[in-house]
Amino acid sequence: MTKITEKATSLLSEGTVKMIIGYEMGTERPRPLFCHTAEECEKLIMNAECKNNLAVYLTKKEIIGEEKIAVIGNYYVVKTVIQLQRENQINLDNLMVMTADENGEVITFTTIDEMKEYTDTHEPAPDPKMVAALEKIDKMSREERWEYWKSELSKCIRCYACRAACPLCYCNRCVTEVNCPQWIEPWAAPLSNMEWQINRVMHMSGRCVGCGECAAACPLDLPIGLLCKKMGMDIKSTFGEWKDGNVLSTYNIGDKENFIK
Amino acid sequence: MEENNNNFEPRIIAFVCNWCTYAGADLTGTSRIKYASNVEIVRFPCTGRIDFMLLLKAFAGGSDGIIISGCHPSDCHYTSGNFHARRRWMVFRDMLDFMGIDIERIRWSWVSAAEGAKWADVVNDTVDKIRKMGPYTEYKKAAMFLEEEKICHD
Amino acid sequence: MPYIMVVDKVTVEALGVKTLRLRFQNEEEGNEFEFQAGNFAEYSAFGEGECTFCIASAPTRKGYVECTFRKAGRVTSGLDRLEEGMTMGFRAPLGNNFPLEDWKGKNLVFVAGGIALPPMRAVIDNVLDRREEFGEVTIIYGAKTVNDLVYKEELKEWEERPDVNLFATVDPGGETPDWKGKVGFTPNVLGEVAPKSDNAIAIVCGPPIMIKFTFPVLEKLGFKDENVYTTLENRMKCGIGKCGRCNVGPMFVCKDGPVFCKTQLNELPPEF
Amino acid sequence: MEELIIKSSDIKTWLDQIIEHTPRVIAPVKQGEKVEFKSIKQSDDVDYESQTTVSSVKAAAFPRTETLFAYEKEGLNTKLYDVAKDNFVETVIWRARPCDVIGFKPLTSIFNWDYKDELYNRRFEKIAIVTFACNTADKCCFCTSVGGGPGNTEGSDVMLTVLDKENVLVEVLTEKGQKLVDLAKDLFEKAEQSIDKEAVLAKIPAKFTKEQIYKNLAKVFDNPVWKAQSERCLGCGACAFVCPTCACFDIQEDAHGNHGRRVRCWDSCGFSLFTQHTSGHNPRPTQATRWRQRIMHKFSYMPDRLNIYGCTGCGRCSRACPVDMNIAEHLTSIAESSHE
């Protein structure tokens, strides 16, 4: 009976929460689990492979309903909750955010500042494979980069798993589903796939928490995680750590740039 | 790339803000300053309204170069339109570069209503630069993906 | 491949609602083409796409085909921009039809709501052209407001006809001072009019909510399930039973419908 | 049905012959950690270790994006043009799996039910399939539960089964297959009769039977089992697009001024706007209703209409799913359950 299951069972039996969202072991890798009853809490686990960003369910009314629920997520779930709160998409008094550290101790957050303090101190190391891939691309010339991205993204079958797995992609009518005007062609073609990725990452600029779930969700393992990573690094280097509001929806008179003459 | 450049006339699209750059371009006309004619101007209420997708649609539609211009910072008719735009362009430009789209073909500038001459220079420089770079064929080829399926015209 | 049709006449029915009268561009296709009341068609506005409407004119009126639509999205705005002489695409006849043959000699009750009069008009005109073969004809047609009523001249024409009793109604609050017809929701008006249900067939057509409210009223009036018909309006793309989106339970609305008898609907899961 | 033997080393030369004589050869190629079907130009690109590819091979006959017709407007008139004949080339699919190949059966029946879809038929009749039987299987495979099997020869033109280190059993099943074998006649010898193919094939325990599922599905339409199963489903299209038997498509328009094309592209019942009416009413509003539609369509509606099941048990949807919606697990719970 791990501490998580103990905590979850107590929460459910006392009725403080109606449902708990956590992880359970799936066919080969952990997957999201929704516990409504105590015995379902037995299956709750928390380890390094638990990667799914559970915050994606917090904006879906049909799942969370009106009552109070709890979520036991990894580092990125906590960070996403901060971002969702900043965009006032979630109602904090209906949500209990919890996580577990390495030896299984359950940490419960009551306020946003506690979450911010936790996320600032527990930043996981960047994934070395991604850093290496980014360097490889930076060394390429412009034409090589164009060929690289065109060949990679022409494989995309437009299943939108990257959009579905992303907790910050909660629009109920995405830009691809709007047809007057038809911004992005809805069929799979190299250029429209690139336009789709550019659009997705531009709408994420300054909001993305870097959980990497879009890349993990892609059935073809396309390197779309690099786009979000690079966007995140560019934003951090040009605008520094942005605290209040999103980068593109606010402005600063003192922004410096060198290309507008 | 040199030999076909002499007869290549680049097609440039200019996204301009109505209050400053469009007025500036107007001034260029009234003061009889000559500038290259292959620019098609698209007027926007403010640079803040220029959506980044429009640039991609311009390239896909066959233009070889883009000029984006608006009011100087802090004299925007809507006070903060160009600040937002500036941020959007900074973020968008890095992303385009990372994806290998040729950002040299996009000219970003501030042209106020009084700078008629500057508008002519901006246009002429861009047209010469794009003429040297030649047509943007790789983007147009990617945009023609559906045409690979041949049609029988009998 | 769709037929090419030339737009002969454009009539504006109500705010945003238009009727297009179409003629086949090449004559032989026009002469060979026949359809039944209840069939629908896929109309293409080239450059915008394709969308699904019923064929609003009766098969007994040769030489032209009519369709009525409301300007709602990309394709309908494309159709809305068409003027006389312009061409558009037309894929028909699709779907099944109203079983007119086995309604001979029966009384007919038509219940239509808002923009759903066009599919009914195809049947009504067909019945009126062979008036003597059918019994009494009652039409109950409701719309939100007075100028939302479609086919205003036809409504007048049906009113004057002695052998058709027409009850046009508008939703409460939609009437204008000189409105002589009834006021109230279509199902309630149906309850007031209370047509006799023996030897009678009821045909209901309208938005899903209206269908759901009208069925209980018909039951109360004694209409047995096998005497009640309706046409369903589901999202359609191919119209030929392939693209897999218009199904209600095991039935494809585009191939096994759109005309369904209530007995069939009862077996289907509540998915329309 | 001729049985021959070929040396493993000669397979490469045979493939070279096939590549030379066929305009397009599609085979699994390794890209990063994933293996995908791609058209290959030389024989050593092919990857032989992987169990199955990510996407199925249906794209060879039902491509992701396909032109239906082109139109051109001149003044008031519009001209329509059909697709050129030479878009459809002879194709050989190399190293497919039995579960890929049976996938073509439901696809063909959908596209030929009532209205014959020419575009699909033109592509499909030009396809010859060389299948490799499965010596291994992984956790997601359940082909034996839906009437398939690792050595099932249905739908293939030539079936190769790796017996041991050097020789491979070749079963020639159709004359298309015969034509392929004739390209390198001398590499093959007659096989003696005593070859036991089953011994080398992978053992996959059957988890349930289709009939059980079909029977139970008739009773569970508005049962909460759908909500429970689909709670974690995110509503993306991955399962439908990698599935060998999913044939749902969308029709869109590619317009450029006065000319353009009508395009058919893949679509999925998992998307929320798949059945959305213009009025906003959506007959399948929640994810549970869409997950129910996916299972009911494959295991109850298709058998009713075309008496063929819409699933080959390849397990691709479970591998491609971001939240691991394991279809075999869900189907087993439906089969065992006697939900009333």
Give a written overview of the molecule.
- Chain A is α/β, with parallel strands linked by helices and 261 residues long.
- Chain A is 39% helix and 10% strand.
- Chain A has helices spanning 3-14, 61-64, 75-86, 112-121, 128-139, 142-153, 161-165, 190-204, 213-217, 224-239; strands at 19-25, 30-35, 69-72, 95-100, 106-109.
- In chain A, helix 6 packs across helix 8 and helix 8 (190-204) runs parallel beside helix 10.
- Chain A is globular.
- In chain B, helix 1 (21-30) packs across helix 4 (116-133).
- Chain B is globular.
- Chain D starts with a strand and ends with a helix.
- Chain D is globular, with a radius of gyration of 22 Å.
- Chain D is an alpha+beta fold and 340 residues long.
- In chain D, 30% of the residues lie in helices and 22% in strands.
- Chains in contact: A-B, A-C, A-D, B-D, C-D.
- The interface between C and D is large, with 42 and 46 residues.
Topology:
The complex is a heterotetramer of chains A (261), B (154), C (272) and D (340).
Chain B: E1 12-17, H1 21-30, E2 39-44, H2 52-60, E3 65-70, H3 81-99, E4 106-110, H4 116-133, H5 137-143
Parallel strand pairs in B: 1-2, 1-3, 3-4
Helix pairs in contact in B: 1-4
Chain C: E1 3-14, E2 17-24, H1 27-32, E3 40-45, E4 49-54, E5 65-70, H2 74-80, E6 87-94, E7 107-113, H3 117-129, E8 137-143, H4 152-160, E9 164-170, E10 182-183, H5 186-193, E11 200-205, H6 208-220, E12 228-231, E13 247-248, E14 251-252, E15 259-261, H7 262-267
Parallel strand pairs in C: 7-8, 7-11, 8-9, 9-10, 11-12
Antiparallel strand pairs in C: 1-2, 1-6, 2-5, 3-4, 3-6, 12-15, 13-14
Helix pairs in contact in C: 5-6
Chain D: E1 2-7, H1 8-21, E2 24-31, E3 34-39, E4 65-74, E5 77-81, E6 91-96, H2 98-112, H3 118-125, E7 127-132, E8 158-162, E9 167-172, H4 175-182, E10 189-190, H5 197-200, H6 210-217, H7 225-230, H8 238-242, E11 249-256, E12 259-266, H9 287-306, H10 316-320, H11 327-336
Parallel strand pairs in D: 2-6, 6-7, 7-8
Antiparallel strand pairs in D: 1-9, 1-10, 2-3, 4-5, 4-12, 8-9, 11-12
